[in-house]
Each structure stands twice: as structure tokens, then as C-alpha cells.
Design a protein that fits this description.
- By secondary structure, this protein is an alpha+beta fold.
- The protein is built from ten helices and twelve strands.
- Strands 1-2-5 form a three-stranded antiparallel β-sheet, with no helix packed on it.
- A hairpin with a 4-residue loop joins strand 11 and strand 12.
- The chain is elongated and about 110 Å long.
Length: about 350
Amino acid sequence: MDGEISPFYDRLERHYELYLTHFGWFKINEEPELSNDGNNETKTVRAESGEIELQQFDKVNFEINTGSVSSAEMMATDNTYEIGEYKLPRDNVKFWRDTTELEDLISKFPAGGTVEDLLDLMPTHANAMRDCWRIQMDLDHFDDALQQAISKYASEGYNTEYLEKMVGKVKDQFSAWQLAKGYPYIWDYIDVIDFDLTNYDYEEPSEEEDPAPPDGGITDDTEEKPEFTVEEVLQLELKRQKELSFLDLVLEETGWTVGFVDPTYVRDSEDEFEREELKNRVGKFEVSTQDVYSFLTQEATQYFRCVFDFDTVNYKVNAYKIESLGVDTNIFLSFHNI
């Protein structure tokens, strides 16, 4: 270079990495070719973009939304419930779950803080949180209220079987609504934290001996919920969100993180996929062994109808809906005009 040998010239070898300003990292994948005209010696190198390193990481027995016991949604923190002998997921793994707000909340939350501190940091969620709490309290006493209603209407000649079915549906809808509100893991465990429910007017039933369970069953009240601090609940919720995020699961332990995820959608589209944001799309995958790069650029891009862009400067993976990329040139290619 300008008559002087570059100090990095001898280090241009296979497997080394190059950084090009504004372009990012590249990996030399072949031995450089030497050229010497008697006056100057040069090296010609061939390099691949830095995301090729993702081929070094394999997803083995990787299952997403298959419903099996080894599928990601079934192993996520507190994400299953049982109906009889069947275990079902509360929520599916979605393309990406944005935890930016939650991570910011955790960073601002004071050590040893209370739920009131949490509400101060979450003014937009405070009312929803209190609503969820009230509904949970209602659900806790729902069965007693249902039996009272059935007894009342039975004495007046109503079809109590129909009433029971309809009220049961309402209860299920309330449970689903509560789960869909914000961060369910926080709300599920909020009742073990000191919380002043000043706006709730529910009258606790009198303390009487519980009636014997039907069919001679045995009640067991010895099992208690584990006690968590607010900080622990927030961390558990963050963990749960990451475990239900497809991109986070794929990029786990690779050193890469999620960057931009296309937020556009077409509200009036007849295509169900197009009517929702990319981040909310749900895919089903079952992979025995495949490297991360191939999995993203082949199976994932085809299923989710998106294009992945690899930022090798910041080691981030960006995802765009196909229709969001490029500019329409009105040029059509065919075998006749190529």
C-alpha cells in the first residue's frame, strides 16, 4: 500500500475474518490466490458474508408447536394446563415476542420494590392489571355462585342444564381473556405479592367448615404456591416470553439477536397471514438436525413468507415481509424477453 507492505497482509489466510466499513464482517473461506508480476505481489481472497457462521450451530430435535412433550411450547415456563389426562399449552410459540418494554421495566424497577412501584412504572397496564385481578377473584368463587344460581333457577322451573353450559362457556372466556392480557405470568403470580386491592368490593364468605368433597374424595390444601418477589416474577415473565418466541429460540446460544421485525399488515386481505403482523404468526416445525442458517433461509422463510436480512455489523437478524422489500419497477421477466 503506497509502496509499503500492509501489516495485515500476511494475516490474509483461510478462516480469517475481514471487516469492511459499512458492510460488516466477512469470512475468508478459501486460501488466497497469490499474484506476482515481478514488481508487486498481491493476494486475491474470496469471502462469504458473516452470517455464514450460523452454519456452525445446529438445531437438534427442534420442535415448535407440535404439541408433543418435547415441543418448545410444552416446555416453556408455566405454559401448560391439564384437562383430564391431556396436557395442553396455554399459548403457542409466535414468530417473535417483543420484550423491549419488559426489559426496560426490569432495568428501572427498584431493588426490593413493591407491586405499587410496578404499577407506577406501568401506567398503561395498571387498570388492566386490576381488572385481571378482579376477574381472577370472581373465578375463584365462580363455582359457588354458579351453584347458587342453579338452585335459584331450578326452583323457578328453568332449564338448569342449559344454564350450566352457558355459564361454563363464560367462565372459559374469562380465563382466556385474562391470559391474553399483557404479561400473563405476572398476573398469575400477583396474588402472592402484597397488593392493596382498594377498589374491589367483594365480600368474603363466612369462615365455615368446608363441606366434604363428593364421592368421598380427599381435599389437600397443603400445597402452596411458591412465594416470589416482584423482581423474580418479572424475570420469570421475561424468561417465559423468550421461550415462546420463535426467533429467540432459533438464535439461542449463537451470539446473534433479533433486530427489526416488519410490523406491516394488510387489514382487509383475504389471506389470514396477511391480516396479522409478522411477529404474531404461528408456525409448526419438527427438525431432526439442521444448521441455523439453512433453517432460517429455507424452512422458516418459506413458511412465514418473509426474508431474513443479516446485520453482520451488530450481529442481528432482521425479518421483512416479502412485499415490504424493494421497489416496483413494473418490469416483467419471462423466457421471451430475457
